[in-house]
Amino acid sequence: MNFLEIAQKRRSLRSYDPTPVEPEKLNYVLECARLAPSWKNGQCWRFIVVKDQSLREALADTLTDDNPGRKVLVQAPLAIVLCGVPSESEVWENKDYMMLDAGLAMEHLILAATEQGLGTCWEGWFSEEKARKVLNVPDEVRVVAITPLGYANQVRNPRPRKSIEEIVFKGKWGEVE
Question: Mean pLDDT across the stretch 77-97?
Fold first, then answer.
């Protein structure tokens, strides 16, 4: 698959097969995440791989009650929790580069998982404080996102996307020619 095919194939999956993820595939997606770019090369991200069923259940309980991701975190064979270390990044002109950098690393992970035939679903609708307690994350570290990781138990069709003409300006804001 080329990059465009990977980007087109990626979906947020909400049903997983219990088949374990092979260690080499897990290591591959984590290595891809490690290589993401970051503000001043701070590499402020950390990943927690959660395989233990009871820990994944406790993690699922950190999601809001109406979040469909609750069952997914328990169903998938593992979850990956993205953390960010603010002291290894900066806020500059009101831009929080820790969040951006952590997001870039997670996107690398998600796209690499797609390439490897694995599914993910970025979860951000959870209690950070509860997740921090479940995983013993220090107070000075942010819990940014969670994703299940595993083999899909469903096929999801592409969601509509805006056209290039709707999102790209040429020269200045609002200019299309």
Answer: 95
